[in-house]
Specification:
By secondary structure, this protein is α+β, with helices and mostly antiparallel strands. It contains six helices and eight strands. Strand 7 and strand 8 form a beta hairpin. Helix 2 (76-85) crosses helix 4 (136-145). The structure holds zinc ion (ZN).
């Protein structure tokens, strides 16, 4: 990775941190963010508010836990372990967004009460077991809850959302927060019906087609949207 590329990644990471704040999913210094870079990753430093953080403040870490620059976020272990174990993703975003954390405080898994739960890659958004922040135990629980998924809740703590890039991780974290908010609202009317696994399989399949623009639309579509021929 060239210096120019690393500097651009640093600027983008700071931009996403500021947007975590402006979107309302992050308060104070609770959240943290990392992105794969070179042989390791860049991660937000410990205890530095995003509105004063500069690209130079970001910490360069290796997978062995060594780093240069400021002290890394206290949650560097789960950032390191997720990036190490999930070659399919490049970004780890963590925050204590209000509604995701509300459900996490009750150790509730988000079921397929709405088809958009599929954006997290499966039929549920799991809630990881509780462990003290910053510990290896928390990292182990998070990794387990993220198995085959792109997001999870952390018991009595918050949420983690993953992405291939920074934009995707921010988008997903906001989606998870929206789903959590919806689910809390839905529960006020009682237990909702849950979409079955076969339907969620169709949903996830359809989502893959939509995001990657591959193949025909799912069976059951009456018509196929296609770009107009140029005149
Ligand atoms: Zn946290």
């Amino acid at each position: 990775m060239t210096n120019f590329e690393t500097n651009e990644l640093r600027r983008n990471l700071v931009d996403i941190c500021r947007r975590m704040n402006s979107s309302g999913i992050n308060q104070g210094t609770a959240g943290n963010l990392s992105v794969r870079a070179g042989n390791g990753f860049l991660i937000t430093p410990s205890s530095l508010p995003y509105d004063v953080m500069t690209p130079e403040d970001l910490v360069e870490m290796d997978f062995d836990g060594t780093y240069t620059g400021r002290r890394p976020s206290s949650e560097w272990r789960f950032h390191r372990d997720i990036l190490k174990n999930r070659p399919d993703i490049n970004v780890v975003l963590h925050c204590h967004s209000m509604y995701a954390t509300t459900l996490a405080c009750h150790h509730k898994t988000i079921p397929a009460f709405h088809y958009m739960v599929g954006v997290a890659g499966g039929t549920t958004v799991r809630c990881a077991e509780y462990a003290t922040f910053g510990t290896q135990a928390l990292s182990d629980h998070a990794l387990k809850a993220l198995d085959g998924r792109l997001a999870c809740l952390l018991g009595q703590h918050g949420q983690i959302s993953l992405g291939k890039d920074l934009e995707q991780a921010l988008w997903l974290a906001i989606e998870v927060e929206t789903l959590a908010r919806m689910y809390v609202q839905v529960l006020t009317l009682g237990q909702p019906p849950i979409l079955d696994d076969a339907e969620m399989e169709r949903v996830i399949d359809q989502m893959k087609r939509m995001s990657y623009g591959l193949g025909p639309e799912a069976e059951g579509s009456n018509d196929v949207a296609r770009p107009r021929e140029p005149i």
